[in-house]
Structures are given as C-alpha cells and as structure tokens.
Design brief:
By secondary structure, the chain is mainly alpha-helical. It has one domain. Helix content is 78%, strand content 0%. The protein is built from 22 helices and no strands. Helix 6 packs antiparallel against helix 10, helix 7 runs parallel beside helix 21 and helix 10 crosses helix 22. 51% of the residues are buried.
C-alpha cells in the first residue's frame, strides 16, 4: 500500500480499534495489541519504528510505582488511613464522605488513580456496611476526588505521566502549576457533593458504635514493612521533586525506588509482580504503536495544521480550545487513549503555529484530559474499576446516574480551570 490507500487504511484501523475500546465488548488491551500487530504486519510501521514510538519512560514509571504500592499495601497502612478517617468523622455518614474523599484526593496524588481506587473502595464498602448505609454516595465522591487529586502531580494520573514525558515536565512542575487550581476545585466539588448527598445520608440509619470501636492500629499487619515502605515512598517522591537537578528520568527514579524496596522488604518477587497491572502496561504499548501509525502517515500533522488555521496560532484561543475539547472528549472516551492520540497533535500545533509559550498549552491539555475523567463512567479507568467493584457487592451505579451527577461537576471544574489559565497563563 502506498499514498492515499495507506492513509485510509491507517485511519480506518485506528478508528475501528478505538470503537472496540469504547464498546468494551472485548478487553481494551487485546484490541490495542491486535491493532498494533496489524499496523506492523500491514507495513504502516516496521518493527523498529513501532518500538521507537513506545514511551518507555511512561511504562517504567507506572511499573515502578505499582511495585512500590503493591509492597506497601501488604503492611495494612491504607486500611489504617481509612479507619482513622472514619473515626475522625465520628461515624457520621456525611463527614465520612468528606474525609474519605479528601484522603483519597491526597493519596491519589502520590499513587496512580486506578491503584488508589483498588485500595480505597473495598474499605469504603466494608465501612458502609458496618454503618448500614449505601456506599454509592461515598464511592462516587471518592472517584471524583481521586481524579481531581491525581491531576495534581506527575505520578497521580496516567495522562499526566504521558504529558510529563512528552513535554519534559517534572514532579515539581506539576505541583507548582496544577495543584493550586486543583485544591480550589477539590474544595468546591466537596461543597457541591455535600448538597447532592446530604439528604440521602442524613436519613440513613447508622451504627456508629461498630466503627468507633475499631482500633485503626489493628489494621497494621506489619509495622516494620510499613516503616520501610513509607520511607522508600517518601524517598522516591523527594527524588521526583528534584529530578531535574538529579538529571534522572521519572522511570529511573520509580524503578530505583521499587528495587530498593524489594531489597529492604525482600518479598517474594513473583507475588509482588502479580500485583502489577500488566494489562494496563500492554494496553499502553499497543496504543503507542497505533498512534505512531497515525503520526507516520502524516494524519496528525494535517489535523494540527487545521487546528492552527482555526485558532490562528494565538495563545488564548488555542489554550481554551485545547482545554474544552480535551475535557468534553475525555468525558466520553477513556482519557488514556485520548491523551496518547493528542500528544503528538499538540506538539505539531506548537511547531506549525510557532507558539512560543507551549507550556501553557500543555497545562491546558493536562487539566482538560484529567478533569474530563469525571464526566461519565467510561471517562477514566478509575471510574470503571469503582463501578465494577460496587456491582460485585450488589450495588448498581448506572451510566446515566453517574453522568447526571458527574458531568455538571466536570463542567464546573473545567470552568474554574479556564479562569485560572486565563489569569496566569494565556494572557
């Protein structure tokens, strides 16, 4: 295949793969890998080009942090934090919602959002059952705050990991530029959640004494492991903050932290490595190759040129377009494949439009892609995981109910982001 036929084939393959990923009839990892294989077999990319398009910095960072979290989890420290939050709230459902959500936002800033949800939701459901209340309001609030908190740092949300790798941003860059507005968004979101759920939770019959009698320290299974794990986690985060001065990539830091924790804790490697979300890792690999095919045949360059023609390459309209388009699109399409597709597109927009202040555009993109994850169930992997875990325990949160609550909150958060960007970056 050559010329136009190659472009048509590549775009068709990408769109078909994307449609299957959205439909979720077949696991998205399978679709991504099959699509990538077809891309290479058909000659759109050769094997060397396919490998060159895989961002190993993103993959290394994910694997390293997943290993650290898997070992840390065995100490029981996450259950300790959840029970402590409930006791601090004195067993009151509305206060529990606020404290568990706030805690989830903080935790999700330092471990990826999917892992955070996997740790928090089982504890939440257990607490809700002890209090004789529905866990749905609390779980929904945790998902909202998880996506918001995860957007604040380099390692909190997969889109940030990908954007940081593409734009050369470090941990400190995300904290300085993203965290201020996200703290405001988190506070406003909690206020709205209070008004959404206060009547439902106020009517709930609670059994406060069950939770108040639980000693959080009983949840710690291994104090020595907890100390070792938290020490390495803190060391890794500090290295992330100063990685520009250390001249080390994020993946190197994460994998070094994982190796050190392996050495200190000496768990069974096969047990820990089973906890790594390998389907997520291989999904990324397939996705990078699919997007690489679009880049190779020039599709992304054409789209970037069209976007520049519409916005005129001006900073403010380009930033606002990237923010809102990213948010709305990410609300209906998982933000991981969307981010992978948009990164080379935005890079081309900067070059074609001769935009000097590209950092502003990257921050607009990061806020849109991450906050759009609160729009619908399918918008972020953490949402899908949380709803699935609720269903396993007999609680159903439908697509429409989630969207009815989440989409307005997402629009509100993006509007706040737009004001923030206009004041500090785009004017």
């Amino acid at each position: 295949m050559t010329g136009t036929s190659l472009v048509v084939f590549t775009v068709t393959l990408f769109l078909i793969s994307y449609a299957f990923i959205i439909a979720e009839k077949i696991h998205r990892t399978i679709i991504a890998l099959v699509g990538a294989a077809v891309m290479v077999i058909a000659g759109v990319l050769d094997q060397h080009q396919a490998i060159d398009n895989i961002d190993f910095n993103t993959l290394g960072l994910l694997v390293g942090m997943m290993i650290i979290v898997a070992i840390t989890k065995e100490s029981g420290v996450f259950e300790f934090l959840a029970i402590s939050a409930v006791k601090f709230a004195k067993g009151r459902p509305m206060a529990i919602l606020i404290w568990l959500s706030a805690m989830t936002a903080v935790v999700s800033a330092f471990i990826d959002s999917v892992t955070c949800i996997l740790l928090v939701i089982p504890v939440t459901i257990s607490i809700a059952q002890k209090l004789n209340i529905s866990p749905i309001p609390i779980v929904f609030a945790e998902v909202m705050l998880c996506n918001i908190g995860g957007a604040a740092t380099l390692i909190g949300d997969p889109p940030n990991i990908m954007i940081g790798s593409a734009a050369g941003f470090g941990f400190g860059d995300f904290v300085r530029n993203m965290a201020p507005v996200l703290v405001v968004i988190a506070a406003v979101t909690l206020v709205f959640l209070y008004f959404i759920f206060r009547k439902a939770l106020a009517k709930a019959a609670t059994k406060e004494f069950h939770v108040m009698d639980i000693n959080p320290w009983d949840e710690i299974k291994d104090k020595t492991l907890m100390i070792k794990s938290l020490s390495i986690l803190l060391f890794t985060i500090i290295c992330f903050i100063f990685h520009n001065h250390l001249h080390m990539e994020s993946a190197t830091i994460a994998l070094t932290g994982a190796a050190l924790l392996f050495l200190l804790a000496q768990p069974k490697p096969e047990h820990v490595l089973r906890a790594v979300e390998w389907p997520v890792i291989f999904f990324f690999i397939g996705l990078f190759v699919l997007v690489g095919g679009l880049k190779e045949v020039g599709v992304l360059h054409v789209l970037a040129q069209g976007a520049v023609n519409i916005t005129g390459g001006e900073l403010l309209p380009t930033g606002m377009a990237v923010l809102w388009i990213s948010a709305i699109a990410s609300a209906f399409v998982d933000n991981i494949p969307f981010t992978a597709t948009m990164i080379p597109l935005i890079r081309d927009m900067g070059e074609l439009g001769h935009i000097v202040q590209m950092d502003s555009i990257w921050w607009s993109f990061a806020l849109g892609a991450c906050l759009g994850g609160n729009g619908t169930i399918v918008a972020a992997s953490a949402n899908v995981v949380a709803v699935g875990m609720l269903e396993e325990h007999g609680y159903r949160l439908t697509f429409l109910r989630f969207m009815k609550m989440g989409f307005p909150l997402m629009i509100m958060s993006v509007a706040i982001s737009a004001v923030y960007l206009c004041i500090f970056y785009l004017t």
